[in-house]
Model the fold of this input.
Amino acid sequence: MPFYHRQGELPNPKHTIFRSPGDERLCREELFSTKGFSGIYSTKYHLRLPPQVARIAERAAPAHSVAWPEAPHQYVHFRTDEAPASGDYISGRRWFLRNAHTAVGTLTVSAPTDAFYRNARAHELIFVHRGGGRLRSEFGRVDFRQGDYLVCPKGSTYHLEFDEVHVKASGKGSGVKCLLMESTTPFEIPSLYKNDSGQMLEHAPYSERDFRPPVLETPRDEDGEFLLVLKVGERWYDHSLPHHPFDVVGWDGYVYPYAFNIRDFNPLVGRVHQPPPIHLVWTTPHAVVCNFVPRLYDFHPQSIPAPYFHSNVDSDEVLYYAEGEFMSRKGIEEGSITLHPMGMPHGPQPGRTEASIGKQKTDEYAVMIDTFEPLALTREVELRLDAGYPQSWLEEE
Done:
């Protein structure tokens, strides 16, 4: 997580008697830790016992997003806005690409729900393409808007509330839409942006001031029946809780949900074309996430702004196109995803290199995900596949 954060009432020292300020009830301390007791962690203080659950039942996994085992190894383009907007923030998730450590999908929302959600096996990165609202968790409230990334640590219990939910036959161009990424390992700030103490360096394209941690709300001391949907890999469970899960009176530490907006990323530019690592936002041991944002082009008098052709021999490159015109591609729309798989060269389509010469800036917004293991496609991709994309580099007559 970015930095130490503290909210609410806390005892000093740890592991001592601590009673709630209102009724002198003994609070229940919970360590929310990583790597056993050897990684970063947060400590929460609950009004109720955290393990309390009245009933547990397995629910059927979503019928969509099934594997496409015979998918060809080729350049891929598909339009995610063609997916129907159906479901709430839990059931409206559709997955397009996945491997053992990473999954990429989208979320379209057509209905609200009171249910809470917890991913027990994966950290989540949610990019808010369209919409706004609030992420509420045990740690508090994070308001979000278009362009925000929401980083949700593995095992955190949260609820998403959107200001507007459109019930539509198609999600194209409007309504609530998010890009989703799951990772079995956490989303970390790249080490080249930090000093030995973990503080952001001056040359980094963002700083601690740009991260928005949660603000603790009044603890919910409520009896009742509250549904928590638990995702455990590819299995799903319903947990019926006898009390509201957001009963925390105070917490501190390094592990918590937070927001960062793509428009707060300060792009780095150079005399000639710079490679994608300058756009890094987060890294994991199995993947990296980069931003493409409005920026000035290279200032060498003979520079070619369009990227040079390259072969990612050990990574699959995924691009999600959010806004603007991406200079090296044609036929791309908002919500398009391209996959350029490892072992195959890729770069600008015919005419795009020439058209970039003399250009001074770009106004694009896109999210790039590079995975270090091959991604398998789902049937969701097959349904929306641009069949002519692999031949789009052939010169036109």
